[in-house]
Write a structure and sequence with these properties.
Shape: globular
CATH superfamily of the largest domain: Ribonuclease Z/Hydroxyacylglutathione hydrolase-like
Helix content: 25-40%
Largest sheet: 7 strands, mixed
Radius of gyration: 20 Å
CATH architecture of the largest domain: 4-Layer Sandwich
CATH class of the largest domain: Alpha Beta
Distance between the termini: 50 Å
Structural class: alpha/beta
Number of domains: 2
Strand content: 15-25%
CATH topology of the largest domain: Metallo-beta-lactamase, Chain A
Length: 296
Amino acid sequence: MELVKIKGRSYYIPGATNVGVYRFKNGFCAIVDSGIDNTAGKRVIETLEAENLKVKYVINTHAHPDHIGANEFIKQNHTGTLIAASPKERIFMENSSLAGTVFYGASPMPGLSGKFVKAKETTVDIELSEGAVELGDKRFNIIPLRGHSIDQIGVLTEDNVLFCGDAFFSEEKLSKYPFPFIFDLREHFKTLEFLLSTDYDYYVLSHSDIIIQNPKDLINKNIDNLNANIDMILSYLSQPLTREDLAELIIKMYNIKLDIPQYFITLTSVSAFLTYLLERNSIEMSIIDGKMYFYV
């Protein structure tokens, strides 16, 4: 791993989950997200210590394990580190079993407790609301980017660099995961439309090999992907289907490789699309003979 300069005092550490870094003048730094586990956290610390930096703040964009899983390792190794997150993401970070509960709808079944679903619980020291916040001697702007998760945020530095988590996805990720994980599709569309109106100097996605300067084409590709999935779902719902029936068709359509977590991740995204279409009165729902059917 290496510390890569973006602009001014804004950097990032490339990885499976890119870690944003803002370098203060006193040997401390704020990082944006931390990685999935202790191994990722160790690499982050080694990269920063090679630059004589210690972590003062970990700002989490959202509570998914690949973004918060190394929080506690970093906190244990850099005494005095403070964790910051939005209010609703805080609930999931401090109660990690809730992630599996969201997927399953009850106490999670065996198989829904691995590190890709359930991160180590981490105490949040600072709640972040929309707008300006001072950390150390610098001001950051907290940008709501809901949709992929319940209360995702972006972090805008004084260098006009936006660390935007999973607010949108790279072309590579869209190609690999054409049916992306979405918690709230209506909010996700709002986030994409908002980002189209912005003009930050750089946009740092959590899962991308490149730093983006003009994201509009890529954001539009994300919107096109969602609309294509909506059209596909409407086509499937020309005949009544249960949620599980629809998930099966989508899994087969995209040849999604399944284990227990991936099945429920896909099913959750199907639910998000169904909620969106019901809210727009694009589909109807009926309960017949003990089953819930959706149809056009």
